[in-house]
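Dissemination and training. As part of the outreach component of the grant, students in the summer workshop were shown how a complex can be specified as a set of sequence lines and then modelled as a single object. The example used during the hands-on session is reproduced here so that future cohorts can follow it. Participants entered these lines:
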Amino acid sequence: MSPESSNANGDNDFRRIVTIWIVSSVVLDLLYWFLVGPHVPPGRMTSTAKDNQLDFNVLLVIALPVLIGVWEWLGFAALRWNVKRKGAPESVGGPGAAGKKSAERSWIVITTVVVLFLAVYGTIELYVGNGSGGGEGPNPILQPAGAVKAETAAVAGTGTWSPNSNEVLAVQVIAQQWKFTYRYPEFGGFESPFLILPDNTEIAFNVTSLDVIHSFWAYQLEVKADANPLENNVAFTKTEQLGNFEVRCSELCGIWHGSMFNSGKVVSESAFMAWANATEAKNAANTKDLPPFAWTYVPDANGAAGGYYPDGGVTPYSPVEIYGSKQPS
Amino acid sequence: MSKGGRLTSVVALFLVVVGLVVWAVASLLTPGVPGGVVNFTNTQAAGQPVHLTVQTVGSIGFGAHPTWVSYLVKDPKTGKWVHDTSWELPAHTVIDMTVYQYDSGSPLRNQEWGQVLGTFGGTATLNGKTFSSYNSNTGNGVGHTFAIPTLNISVPLVGVSGNPCAVAPCHFNSPHNVETFSFKTPGPGSYNWQCFVPCALGYLFGNGGAMSTQNYMGGELEVVN
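and obtained this result:
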């Protein structure tokens, strides 16, 4: 085959490849976006879950054309440019492309644009989503309006929350081997093994541990924060849909780690108010025996309590200090 | 090696590998019958409550870890105390549980476990007196809890003064508390139960040793139809 006819074949193949690529990318991206996208985990129960679903869909819509392009090129290489085939044309991107400035420029520009776009997009999403449901440590730099006020009031014991108030609800997540429990500072600081949340509300999860490192992972809420002893790890989300969700520990924490899960529920604001008031009243006898609400608690490193184990070599704490009174600044 | 010898070696190695794969797959797919499961099915007429009696001791006194704290259960068929923490129970059945608590107590690390949760009426009895919450900072504190986390059942087991019973099973002449409560088993499945008091002497945060070893302070409820 002459070089001229080879180049002509190459140009034709290139045009074919680009045409097929554009058409199939647009079709598949649209099909994915409208048919699959709305059902992609983690769903749309919270603002962070919704954002996460959007991010995943954006990534996939960008990744699909790349995938299609690679597969298409492979298909052409295997079927059309196969050297074993009689009269096979020279491959596009083969030796003939060496030193072709337009190909080099296209490659550099496209990959740079894709990577920079994703970096900027991801950073913006992290900011807009107030940390995207991830634990931000004890002093979060990204937080919804009203969070500082609500958190300050919660630890001072003066926090309030009511339906339609648009106030941030502080919820403390206490991890211990091998169960999560939850304290509600706006409702007298009662503690419960049930995680119930009001709909349409900004939630500030304050995650800590009484023993080893755990990780609070409410998958459908798209909230995940490590639970460290003596640390308050704060994560934010806004509930936007009623429904059930699961909480799991995602840090290997011992023999019953696999059983460290529970289900939670997003209910209407009025239903939450009714549940919280009822539980506050029902748990009143136990709540008065709980330590004062604090962001972190000091467990005794040696056992159940100070003085319980005489050979531990640990100075016994008073019962109050064991759980509750020490609050690192 | 001759051609025949090489062939024989290859075939033999191949058979060994196939055998190992078959054995591994069969082991994974065949549910093993766990040893030491105390069977409480067929111990009562259909629809009647099952009586489950356990005791907690400060030190088991025998076996590989004689100093470890442990639960024991009364075998419904022989009436003897046995050191097994996996119990087979009928589904959708009321379980009347009696706990003989022979161990001392302390303030709870998390007083949340001072509450009685998930039992009928949200209550238990302590030496005949009904209670729904126990302040572990008072009296002898709480020695252990009986909890089934996935069913949100938890009962504090109030401690006794001292721990004179050194070898299990303990007998009624040792100081003890008697607690009773009832709950209903769910559908068939495996549900772990555990103590939430970090009571493993000498281990970091008290959750190693007996707390992290099957057959001491935790086990499985095998609920069957």
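The mean pLDDT of chain B is 88. Students were then asked to discuss how this feature might be tested experimentally.
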